[in-house]
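Help: read this over?
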Amino acid sequence: MDGFSAEELFTKENGWAYNDFIILPGYIDFSPDDVTLESNLTRNIRIKNPLVSSPMDTVTESRMAIGLAMLGGIGIIHYNNTIEEQAEHVRKVKRFENGFINDPIVLSPGNTLSDIDRIKERYGFSGIPITENGKLNSLLLGIVTNRDVDFETDRTKKLSEVMTTDLVTAKKGISLSEANQILKNSKKGKLPIVDGQGRLVALMSRKDLLKNREYPLASKDPRKQLMVGAAISTREESRERLEALAQAGVDVIVIDAAQGNSIYQVEMIAYIKKKYPDIQVIGGNVVTEEQGATIIKAGADALRIGMGPGSICTTQMTMAVGRAQATAVYRTARYARKQHVPIIADGGIANIGHIAKALALGASAVMMGSMFAGTSEAPGEYFYENGVRLKKYRGMASQEALEAGGAKRYFAEDTKIKVVQGVSGAVVDKGSLNEFVPYLIQGLKHSFQDMGTQDMKSLHDKLYDGTLRFELRSLSAQLEGGVHDMYSYKEPKYI
């Protein structure tokens, strides 16, 4: 056969990066629209699109996690914050989109319009049920919406004076589809769910119905809430953090360590699996089969692969430890597959082709930092430099991030001298996830078509039976494969 199998290419002496090789084309007998990208994030969590945002403080907070989950991926909330702040980000994601909202915000008739204002500012909505004592499972008296409060100037006015009492409700035990129909017919914004005594037990939102239509691939848990992950360290403090995250409804925990092959991570995984068996755990980071074996044996539900390939990471240069990312992905994926554990390729992704290559080497998903850091959903404000619209982006081992709490990731929290393993910089504005992610997904579908495969399973089957073929690229070939010999050209919006 033409070219080489992955086994032939990635088990030799050299370590290879994504730019060092190319995938030979397959046979096309389907359109890009026939491609499906659904895959396993962990043993028990599947997502429609294999995109994960990195737990970095310039990448993933609630807004990023919401936006990515709506588009079929998942976001991992960083932990360079307080326990309550991280848990609140998780709660915001879980509250954002629901079938039945089982823990709606509730107020009493004695609350005021200013209380509504504070809730709206914090959570971004204002349709609030009013119950007798301001709590769930209390007699429903009314509801306050934007229409009730928008033109009121006296913000000390009590809600009993403005609330709508002409309510359409549904009984506890109603099916989701039946409740959807009542909400549609009522032309109301909210549908309170009450028990036989008229006490509020849940809520439905018209906006959620619209979102369900607009985002059919959204990553949701069995309760129809958006899925979200959160990062923790291996330190003792993270056990308290974990409890708060579990209460907030987190779906998956990422143990965030630059080198994951440690007794500290083994003990933390064992602790999580024993105390919170329903929460999936992603262990890492690892780059060898031996490291992966340790983490899988400890009980990890997925592996995070990468040590030093990120655009802002200097670990390989500073520590002299790590591995070329393409080789790391293939070698760990080959082992993890035998254990039925998915792997997530973390770092080194600069374009759609790199995503495709990571998946073609056995990854079930890719975790990205710089690719998402320039979007409007990432934390931080835009600024201009030399006429270019930018956003700050920093490594979690940069001086700034270490001082903010990132040292926990590098087992350096208590050391007086902190060795920097990353830099701070800026990335170009990429606009909204709502435009950027569909572009990435469509590009991936075209790549899968060129490789002659329609889904992740068949791609990985071809990888391991040797029918997916690879070839190394010389420096000249790499230059030839990009833009060259042009006097000038206009760069595309996205690479």
Notes: The chain has two domains: 6-96+218-480, 113-206.
